[in-house]
Amino acid sequence: ALMITDECINCDVCEPECPNGAIYMGPEIYQIDPDKCTECVGHHDEPQCVQVCPVSCIPRDPSRPETHAQLFAKYLRLQDAD
Ligand code: SF4
Ligand code: SF4
């Protein structure tokens, strides 16, 4: 999963771009639900939030390292949940 750092300026452009609805406004800045973030695997070649973020504050979450196969499995689980 990706994460949003405290460099976020709350511009709101990433939230509507997420195909998994993983981005939400937290107490102070936007946040990513790691259980919903597939790093856009299954939907797009590149993480859409990273593409649009004007301040480049969306790195991989070092506490949630995932392989492409794990991310794709999460994508399939999220499809089933719909
Ligand atoms: Fe959503 Fe993709 Fe960004 Fe993850 S990488 S938060 S799935 S837009
Ligand atoms: Fe924050 Fe970047 Fe999202 Fe804007 S695009 S709300 S700066 S994470």
UniProtKB/TrEMBL annotation:
Its cofactor is [4Fe-4S] cluster. One of its GO terms (molecular function) is 4 iron, 4 sulfur cluster binding. PROSITE patterns: 4FE4S_FER_1, 4FE4S_FER_2. SUPFAM superfamilies: 4Fe-4S ferredoxins (SSF54862). InterPro entries: 4Fe4S_Fe-S-bd (IPR017896), 4Fe4S_Fe_S_CS (IPR017900), PSI_iron-sulfur_center (IPR050157), YfhL-like (IPR047927). Keywords: 4Fe-4S, Electron transport, Iron, Iron-sulfur, Metal-binding, Transport. Pfam families: Fer4_7. This is YfhL family 4Fe-4S dicluster ferredoxin. The keyword Cytoplasm does not apply. NCBIfam families: di_4Fe-4S_YfhL. GO terms for cellular component: cytoplasm. Residues 1-28, 30-63 form the 4Fe-4S ferredoxin-type domain. It comes from Zeimonas arvi.
